[in-house]
């Protein structure tokens, strides 16, 4: 049996293609690794259409060459139209190919997803165990009613939804992602995350988040269960990445890398104990840092910390259920800068309750924080979030909304028309926020003075190019 794991193309960034670099699709790499261990006789192929920049014609030719029995696609909300087109192509090649989708979008909208004519089944929530069990059932011609964690069409074409699957309690039991199946040379971080001239990659050391922010899919996707890999397991993977793949820079995709202080310090000490020459970037909350932790992080190679500030208005933060005081942002940035680590921040514009006045508060806070890089995203209410349900109930979605409009940064019109703040104004304020932040003389001088290497100069150049594209 041949199984193809496919990352779909996402061709409509509204003119901002490539703004976020290219990252290895870890979800597919984990699926491939797990299948390879459980069923080594299965021939596993991967096709990163987004990473390779493949056209629909090229995708069709690749699938014809591979001739898979099952195709598993990751289905993010902004790319769902492209997912459906790829599914159509697959079924045009052969109706016998089983098409399975997974990820946050199918998890949030399982019945609607499987109701699409070219989709046979959807893997919900965590994928490794469920996808394997689904393949076993298909291969053995068993009914799918006993496979937990899926939605599917029965023989009569009815959409069925099974109970949730088993959550993976021991993440150490999973094999390391099958990076060897991917063309690693095509992946690179965006200029906001590039910290060295080392070959870069991405990793995740935990799954889940204990918080219930209204805009985030993490609590829904991981069912609010937070699980950690052991420090030994994490650092063993880093060593494999260094020795086998030549990686030296890592972007950790954990929702909250420093949520457990003891674990964070143990990680740093293990990296130093093994004398690993790496640099890395992670995401943190503003209320999970202190001087001791930051000293350890810096000495273990941490070069940048990214914060989700989200808003400069306490009222908006409370509506988001962010559960953080506004003054914590300034305290955290000061601590990180004092430790000699670069800072990056993200804000969202256009959440529930947003006004032009609260957006002005956000821009003012961003300038005050003066991080090395700052991003101003359009607030996108993804299915499965409280934000989505509230916007839907209040009739805030644009009448001509498309899935591609759920992109965080693009020149497409945002998905919502808020009271007193239509989509056109949200897009206007996003562009204005970028302009006001990056064109300040203080910031420009800081960036020029901070150029100490070829990497710094390259990041400055690429960042300037991205800014000009956003401003178009």
From TrEMBL:
What PROSITE patterns does this protein map onto?
B12_BINDING (PS51332), RADICAL_SAM (PS51918)
Keywords (alphabetical) are:
Iron, Iron-sulfur, Metal-binding, S-adenosyl-L-methionine
Residue ranges of domain Radical SAM core in the record: 195-416
**Cofactor(s) needed:** [4Fe-4S] cluster
- One GO CC term on file: cytosol
User: Which InterPro entries does the entry mention?
Assistant: BchE-like, Cobalamin-bd, Cobalamin-bd_sf, Elp3/MiaA/NifB-like_rSAM, Methyltransferase_Class_B, rSAM, rSAM_horseshoe, rSAM_sf
SUPFAM superfamilies to which the protein is assigned, alphabetical: Cobalamin (vitamin B12)-binding domain, Radical SAM enzymes
Enumerate the GO terms in the molecular function aspect: 4 iron, 4 sulfur cluster binding; catalytic activity; cobalamin binding; metal ion binding
UniProt-listed Pfam families: B12-binding (PF02310), Radical_SAM (PF04055)
Keyword Flavoprotein found = no
Using the record's annotation, list all stretches that form the B12-binding domain. 6-145
What this protein is called in its record is Uncharacterized protein
Which organism does this sequence originate in? Candidatus Portnoybacteria bacterium RIFCSPHIGHO2_12_FULL_38_9
């Amino acid at each position: 049996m041949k199984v193809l794991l496919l990352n779909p193309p996402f061709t409509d960034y509204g003119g901002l293609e490539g703004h976020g670099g290219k990252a290895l699709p870890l979800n597919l790499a984990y699926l491939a690794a797990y299948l390879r261990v459980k069923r080594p006789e299965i021939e596993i192929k991967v096709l990163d259409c987004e990473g390779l920049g493949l056209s629909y014609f090229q995708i069709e030719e690749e699938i014809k060459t591979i001739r898979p029995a099952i195709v598993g696609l990751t289905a993010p909300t902004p790319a769902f139209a492209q997912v459906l087109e790829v599914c159509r192509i697959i079924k045009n090649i052969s109706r016998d190919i089983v098409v399975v989708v997974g990820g946050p979008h199918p998890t949030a909208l399982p019945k609607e997803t499987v109701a699409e004519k070219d989709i046979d089944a959807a893997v919900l929530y965590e994928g490794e165990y469920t996808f394997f069990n689904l393949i076993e059932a298909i291969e053995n011609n068993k009914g799918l009613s006993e496979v937990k964690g899926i939605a599917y069409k029965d023989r009569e074409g009815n959409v069925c939804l099974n109970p949730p699957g088993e959550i993976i309690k021991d993440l150490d039991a999973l094999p390391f992602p099958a990076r060897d199946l991917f063309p690693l040379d095509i992946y690179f971080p965006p200029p906001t995350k590039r910290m060295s001239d080392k070959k870069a990659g991405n990793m995740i050391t935990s799954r889940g988040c204990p918080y219930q922010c209204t805009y985030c899919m993490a609590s829904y996707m991981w069912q609010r269960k937070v699980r950690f890999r052991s420090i030994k397991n994490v650092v063993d993977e880093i060593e494999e990445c260094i020795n086998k793949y030549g990686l030296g820079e890592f972007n950790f995709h954990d929702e909250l890398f420093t949520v457990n202080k003891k674990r964070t310090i143990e990680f740093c000490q293990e990296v130093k104990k093994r004398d690993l020459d790496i640099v890395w970037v992670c995401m943190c909350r503003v209320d999970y840092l202190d001087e001791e932790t930051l000293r350890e992080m810096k000495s273990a190679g941490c070069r940048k910390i990214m914060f989700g500030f989200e808003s400069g208005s306490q009222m908006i933060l409370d509506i988001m259920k962010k559960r953080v005081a506004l003054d914590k942002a300034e305290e955290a940035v000061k601590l990180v800068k004092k430790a000699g680590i670069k800072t990056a921040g993200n804000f969202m514009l256009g959440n529930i309750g947003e006004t032009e006045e609260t957006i002005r508060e956000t821009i003012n806070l961003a300038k005050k924080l003066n991080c090395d890089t700052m991003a101003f995203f359009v607030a996108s209410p993804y299915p499965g979030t409280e934000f989505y349900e509230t916007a839907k109930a209040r009739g805030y979605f644009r009448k001509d909304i498309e899935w591609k409009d759920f992109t965080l940064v693009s020149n497409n019109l945002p998905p919502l028309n808020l009271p007193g703040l239509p989509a056109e104004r949200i897009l206007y304020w996003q562009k204005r926020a970028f302009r006001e932040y990056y064109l300040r003389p203080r910031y420009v001088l800081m960036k020029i003075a901070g150029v100490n290497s070829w990497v710094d100069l390259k990041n400055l150049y690429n960042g300037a190019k991205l800014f000009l594209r956003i401003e178009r």
